[in-house]
């Protein structure tokens, strides 16, 4: 009898825990739902630029299409002070009327994961951020939200 109560208690508790986890997952899915697309040409240009800059970092802004929401159809190259991870973009030099969705930069290492500095810069510079890692191919890049969560960016022709 006591054991049954014990089991009931813990059974109930773990049920609540599962509910909590499920809620968390749902809210994460909601956040991730804002997915993006990028034109293949733009992505290929960024990859080529990353390759050319090696072993230095390359950085550019991602411009949003004027016709399609959340679609990246432009790369905006800006004068930047490239110094390893801390490449600085001069935001005040953005062309007028440009809608910036986020950033793209390269890592001369095989790790397409944001550094602490990246996370700080992501939070200030738009909603979607692409990191292209060495060896700079269609398979060596990842995208993140402004808070550093992985996001889906679909390549479209
Ligand atoms: Zn980085």
Structural account:
It contains 3 helices and 9 strands; from the N terminus they run H-E-H-E-E-E-E-E-H-E-E-E. With 157 residues, it is α/β, with parallel strands linked by helices. It folds into 2 domains: 33 residues; 123 residues, 3-Layer(aba) Sandwich (Cytidine Deaminase, domain 2). Strand 2 and strand 3 form a beta hairpin. The structure holds zinc ion. The site of zinc ion has 6 residues, from strand 6.
Number of helices: 3
Mean pLDDT: 82
> Structural class per helix/strand content?
alpha/beta
Distance between the termini: 66 Å
Topology overview:
Elements: H1 2-32, E1 36-39, H2 40-53, E2 59-64, E3 71-76, E4 80-81, E5 88-89, E6 100-107, H3 116-122, E7 128-133, E8 141-145, E9 153-156
The chain binds zinc ion.
The site of zinc ion has 6 residues, from strand 6.
């Amino acid at each position: 009898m006591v054991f049954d109560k014990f089991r009931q208690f813990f059974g109930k508790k773990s049920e609540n825990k599962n509910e909590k986890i499920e809620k968390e997952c749902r809210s994460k899915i909601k956040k991730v739902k804002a997915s993006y697309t990028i034109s293949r040409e733009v992505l290929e240009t960024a990859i080529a630029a990353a390759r050319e800059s090696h072993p230095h970092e390359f950085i550019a802004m991602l411009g949003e299409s004027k016709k399609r929401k959340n679609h990246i159809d432009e790369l905006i190259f800006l004068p930047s002070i490239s110094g390893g991870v801390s490449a600085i973009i001069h935001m005040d030099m953005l062309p007028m009327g440009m809608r910036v969705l986020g950033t793209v930069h390269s890592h001369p290492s095989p790790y397409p994961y944001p550094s602490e500095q990246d996370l700080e810069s992501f939070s200030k510079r738009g909603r979607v951020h692409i990191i292209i890692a060495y060896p700079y191919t269609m398979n060596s890049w990842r995208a993140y939200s402004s808070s550093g969560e992985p996001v889906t960016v679909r390549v479209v022709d």
